[in-house]
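Dear colleagues,

As part of the handover before I leave the project, I'm documenting each prediction I ran so the next person doesn't have to rerun anything. This entry is a single chain, and its sequence is reproduced below.
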Amino acid sequence: MSNKDGGSSVTNLVFTNKSTQTRNILIGVAVVVGLVVVVTVITVPTVVVNSNKRDSSPLERAKSLMKEVPLVDGHNDLPWQLKTNFHNQLLTVDLRVSTKDKFGDYGHTDIPRLREGHVGAQFWASYMSCDSQYKDAARHAIEQIDVIKRYTKQYPDTFTFVTTAQGIWDAFNDGKIGCMIGVEGGHAIDSNLGLLRILYELGTRYMTITHSCNTPWADNWIAARDESEVEFQGLSQWGELVIKEMNRIGMLVDLSHVSFETMKDALRVATAPVIYSHSSAFALCEHHRNVPDDILQLVKENRGVVMVNFYDNYVCCYPSNNTECDLKVVANHLDYIKEKCGSDCVGFGADYDGVTTLPKGVEDVSTYPDVVAELITRGWSDEDIKKALGLNLIRALEEAEKVRDDMANVPPFDEPIAVTARGEENATCRYFP
């Protein structure tokens, strides 16, 4: 009995040990499986997200970035098309449908294509012909400001009028395109600093110092290639006052269209960042509307922004440039300015509806994502893409606003230009007190 009982105890002990071992093994396996499941649940979404980010096409990535940061374009001449084709009668044109057949050789801009192009904010140009200088330039400038404000109000679901850097963000976050005003041509102020201040009060946030003609205080871009156009070797002394007053009131100085010497003088005088609202790289296309390397270095020191123009004559330089003029050439200019001036220096200023011919692939405002996709393909970082899209321009405007605020106690510059310097030999078109 004792042997039998003893044998039974040993058997039970062995069975118990085996059961315990089995249970422990099962528990261990269960724990391991559980951990694997948990790790998988945590890891797989991350892997999927990273994989999606890695595998998304450059165009999809471009559109994603353009939903994070507003694309701010420096120059669009839609107001001029409305003036020349419709006499600014806005009820006779609908921007909610295509303008391709409405503006002759232009028709680059309408609301559907602005949306397709992910435009976040736009400087609309208040342009007046050089033929209006010494005559009614100021009237034309104000008329164009009026039409910009009117079509902004006409389409409130799409547009909103903004005058500040924060306003650009507010519009973007509200799903609207921020509308800003740039006056294209210093002859708009009729050599009067009071008019400059009034243009600012009307909403103007940059002024192009000249167009394709000298003002009575600054040389235009043609002077850089034709000595007979040189009058001031850049800015006159009174022209320097214009730059100072623009800084004092918070208006960006736009150096597109000016001579190289005018660029240098303005950069020497300016205490706020300057912009080039629609210019490209002179080294890649030797057109004197573009910015040469030595001046790009000055722009870098100034913390300014060069907003690349898409016009084929400014990026491809026909006929000397024999390469195909396409989107890649525009990207070359963005690349070059980023390399020479830094990633804080580059932006977009396509000049749509102000030029008649454009490179293949950038025919209208809908094509900005394609340009951004090309930059992504070339290895631009997300951070640098965002800077070029709009952060650089917004930062420049913020700094101009800070200079304005710092100069709040500085009285307006009010020295009049000499009557004899106004460029009118007989002064028959106006009354001088």
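The two ends are 139 Å apart (CA to CA). Confidence is low (pLDDT under 50) at residues 1-20, 25-54.

All the best with the project,
I.
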